[in-house]
Structure formats: C-alpha cells, structure tokens
Amino acid sequence: MGGKGTYRIVDDLDTDALRRDPKPVVGFSDITHLHLALWDRCRLACLHGPFPNASDEWCGPSSADAVRRALMTTDPVIIHRDTSQASAAVSVEGTATGVLVGGNLDAIRTEAGAGLPNLKGAILFVEHQ
C-alpha cells in the first residue's frame, strides 16, 4: 500500500509494541498520516525524507546520505534552505530549536479534521507539491 492509505491503518497500530521496540519510519508526502499518528500516540520520532533507494531529481545520493546520517549518528540535524526553491524567499535568518513536526500540506489539512497531535511549542514544517 502506498502512503496515501495510511490513514486507514493508523487506528489498528499496536502502539504498545511500537513503544517497546521502536523502529525508524522514513517517508514523505502521503505517509504524513502515519508520521503524525506515531508522534501523537507513541512520541515516536519519524524522518520526513526520501527512501534511501529513491532516485529522482529530489532523491539522489546526497539525500540517502542525509537519511543515513540522521538515523545512524548523534550529530545534530541541520536544515539548509534551497535557494532555488520559491519557499526560500520567505525564510529568515536565525536558529530554532525544538520538536520539528509536520508533513504534506494536503495530509495535514485532512488530518486536522481527525484531530492533529498537540503541536504547542513545535516547529511546524510543511511540504507542498
């Protein structure tokens, strides 16, 4: 099943098992439903990013290296804006520290009707295609 159907399975997740033996969940776009549910119900941190074997203009070798570093090191994750993207124009200089929560805008909009996790104090990021 693609990520688009994850909203159908989140209520059937064994959250006790996930808390006992957490595994990294990596994906983006439609898998946002799963990311938000795992954060809300288990406080399981997920990685909003490309699959390590993906290969297209957005998911090349540098993306796989970034995923590997995020999962396999204790180094802080530093996010740099991509100046070739329109969203870079609305960025401001500075540093932010906190829990980073978010995902695909359409999925977040859908999730809002089902009840988003408490995002108080979170840094919200939005992906939109």
In words, what does this structure look like?
The chain has helices at residues 15-20, 32-42, 61-72, 105-114, and strands at residues 26-27, 47-48, 100-104, 123-127. By secondary structure, the chain is α/β, with parallel strands linked by helices. It has a single domain (3-127), classed as Rossmann fold. The strands form two sheets. A two-stranded parallel ribbon has the order 1-2. Strands 3-4 form a two-stranded parallel ribbon. The protein is globular, with a radius of gyration of 15 Å. 15% of the residues are buried. The mean pLDDT is 80.
Write the layout of secondary structure elements.
Elements: H1 15-20, E1 26-27, H2 32-42, E2 47-48, H3 61-72, E3 100-104, H4 105-114, E4 123-127
Parallel strand pairs: 1-2, 3-4
Question: Characteristics of this structure?
Answer:
129 residues; alpha/beta; Rossmann fold; two-stranded parallel sheet; 4 helices; 4 strands; 11% strand
